Amino acid sequence: MAHTRRRLLRVQSPKPAGMAKGWLDAFVAYAEGECHLAENTVAAYRRDLEHFSSWLDQRNIPKLSIRDLADYVTWLHARKLAPASIARHIVSLRVFFRYLQLEAVMSDNLAELLGSQKLWERVPKVLSVEQVTRLFAAPGRSDPCWRRDRALLELLYATGCRASELSNLKLRDLRLDEGFCACRGKGDKQRLVPLGVRSIEAVRAYLEHERPKLAARRSSAPEWVLLSYRGRRLRRERIWELLKRYARRVGAPPEVSPHTLRHSFATHLLTGGADLRQVQEMLGHASIATTQIYTHVDPARLKAVHKKFHPRA
Predict the structure, then answer these.
(1) Options 1.10.150.130, 3.40.190.10, 1.20.210.10, 3.40.50.720; which CATH number does 2-117 get?
(2) How far is CA 261 from the centre of its chain?
């Protein structure tokens, strides 16, 4: 069956010369139909490669040189993209070129030669505990769904969830009486994350007072925890918008994002003495090297560890 799908994709794929858009569509179909990648992963590939297609213009993909690809990275920098976004664009290009190698469009994957920033070496921005407290108090009774928004903020910080994970959180994933929830991350891997008393209280207030009204606006009972004003699943884009709104309200840094609360979650746990392996499990990181980024955030903690364990500290 997989061989048949590969053959169909080849038949439907366009000729390589000057037809990047066609190859992009074929690659997305391949990623969805044969690789079974997550919806958000496929969407991210498409967004990144649409940028590449815009830059490509009349250039011929098989004839691109490493100098051309370096010019593409320069073009991304000129668009004021963040370093993390540029690194992701390069990864997307590598995966796309591997697909083109499978389709015999190109023999060499020059994108492998492009250097990308080692994201684990970057120190993430975090909020202080005081800033987090002010942020959680930002939604008020004058806001249309203030209990939902408080529950949203509490869950982001309590679980370290990504925005997409929180958007897809379902009622069956909540175990409020036991004090934890089940999060589904990349690759649909499930992890269990404890919930604190305050986050449980905020979620229960929302479930009791607001969610039933939102759910009643749909003909069938929605399964997601966080619902929009019309009773649909609260999209991750909307989660970003709401967080930005409340961050502005309390004077938090303008670059605050759901990932900022994820970074803050991990950093505050480590600062409090949590084991790195435990934090890795709660974040859903496949490699502990990714989690180790947070050990660079708090120099005071490093000094304390050094003083405690080094024989000549």
Answers:
(1) 1.10.150.130
(2) 12
Strands in 190-194's sheet, in edge-to-edge order, are 174-175, 180-184, 190-194
Instruction: Give pLDDT tens digits for 127-180.
Output: 989 999 999 999 999 999 999 999 999 999 999 998 999 999 999 999 999 999
Burial of 264 (0-12, 13-18, 19+ CB in 10 A): buried
53-85 residues labelled b (16+ CB within 10 A) or e (exposed): eebbeeeebeebeeeebeebbeebeeeeeeeee
* Residues identified as active-site: 162, 186, 259, 262, 285, 294
User: Would you say the pTM of this structure is higher than 0.85?
Assistant: no
Q: Report whether 195 contacts 180 (CB < 8 A).
A: yes
Rounded distance, CA 165 to CA 108, Å? 36
